[in-house]
# Entry
Amino acid sequence: MAPKVNGSELLFYPYTYGKTPLVRNQWGIWEPASNHDPVALSHCHFVCVPGVAFDREGGRLGYGKGYYDRALQGYEGVKIGVAYAQQVSEKPLPLDDHDVLMDALVTEEFFLIFNERD
# Structure
């Protein structure tokens, strides 16, 4: 699966590395040039989530448009933040009520679990 912005929504489309063509969106981010229907996140066991900054309590700051926060509202799978270690704050980030917390965070140096699951 790969994310693609559609208006104010972030949708997820089938993606195969090296086979699915990619195009740049209005922000220069590569997205699948898919003619397929989007796939519901409920079909995914986990989602890797990028961000500008993360904290050690599961907090995440994105780019300010709220695409991932809206897409992940009500998602019951595992939300894994993906970042470089230098993007991780030792202090809690200033979060809003609509910000979705990560269940785990992976960097090139460490892996943190915030929400244990069965």
Summary: Helices lie at 67-72. The chain has a mean pLDDT of 93. The chain is about 5% helix and 30% strand. The two ends are 24 Å apart (CA to CA).
